[in-house]
Automatic annotation (TrEMBL):
Keywords annotated in UniProt: Heme, Iron, Metal-binding, Monooxygenase, Oxidoreductase
Lineage, highest ranks first: Eukaryota, Fungi, Dikarya, Ascomycota, Pezizomycotina
A molecular-function term among this protein's GO annotations: oxidoreductase activity, acting on paired donors, with incorporation or reduction of molecular oxygen
Species whose genome carries this gene: Metarhizium brunneum
Database matches in PANTHER family: CYTOCHROME P450, CYTOCHROME P450 MONOOXYGENASE
Protein name (record): Cytochrome P450 monooxygenase apf7
Amino acid sequence: MTDSTGKSKYQQVLVLENMVNKLETILESFGSREKTVMHIVEMLETIVSRHSPDNNELNEIIDILVATEGLERYITTLMRYSPSSTIPGLRARVTAYDAKILKAGAGLLVVTGSHTTSASLSGIFFYLTGDPRRLIKVQNEIRGILELTNDIIHGPKLASCTYLRARVDEAMRLTSSGPSELPREVMRGGIHIQGQYYPAGTVVGTSSWCDARNQRVYGDTDVYRPERWIVDEAEGVTKEHVARLKANFNPFGAGPGHCIGNVFAMSEILIAVARTLHRLGVRRTPGSMLGAGHPSLGWGARSPQQLHLKDAYITIRHGPEVQFRKRTTGSLGE
C-alpha cells in the first residue's frame, strides 16, 4: 500500500525514523528550545487528533515505530526539553521496560556480542583446513598483499583481499551463528507475504540455516565453494549473480533488528583470520573428525565435509581440531 506521494508504509517508517534523528540534532542546536518544542508537540497532537483510534494505517505505522524504539526516542526527546507536554494517543502506546526484560536484553547482548565471531571462526577454520589447495591460495593472497603482520588492520589493503573475504563469506554461509528463525509478531492489520495472509499476532520468521541452503539462489548449496562470491565473467560468475547472493546473505540479521556491530564484527573476523594465516601454518589434526558430519547423525548432518551444528537459538558446535605452528617455508598448511 502506498500513500498519495507513492511512498510505501515501510518507506514512511524510514522517513519518520530519519525525522527522529534530525529532531535530536535540531533540538541540541537551538539556544532557546521551548517554542520549537511546543510547535512540534502541537503539530503532532493535531495530526493524532485527526485520526480515529481504529485507523489501521496510522496504527500500523505507530506499531512499527514502537517496535523499533523510534517513537519512544521521539517522545523522550520532546519530554527532555518540554516536561509539561503530553502527546495523547501516542504516549500511552509506549510501555516501560521492567527488570526482567532488561536482564534478558543484557544477557542477549553479552552472548550475541561474541557468539557470531566465535561460531564463524570455527566454521572458517573447519573449511580452511578441509581444503589444502584453497588454503594455500588464500595464504598466498594475504602474504602477497600484506607484507607485515602489523599491516593487517581495517583498511583498503585488507579489503583488497577478495579471496579471503570470499572464504569468510562462504564459511559464514554454511555456519549460521543463529540457525533458527528470529521470530517476529505480525502487527495490527496483518500482512501478506508471497501471497499468503498472516493475521495480527501470528509469529513468523525465516531460518538463516535454510536461507543459506536455498538452491534457487546458491545451486550447489552443500558445497564449500568460495569462488561463487567473486565476479569472474570467464567462469560465468556475473555481477548480477554475486549481487543476488549478497542480497540473500544476512549473517548478522536484517531490518530494524540487525546487528548494529556487524561492520566491526566482520572486520574483527577478517583481521583474526588474516593475522593467523600470515604468521602461522595451520592444518587439521591428522585423523581428527571432530565437528564433522557423519552418516549416523541423520538428515542434514551426514556429510563429513560439513561442520555439524546444533540449534539452541545460538549455534552449538564441537570442533574443528586444528594444529598451528610458526610460519616457515614448507610449514603446516603450505
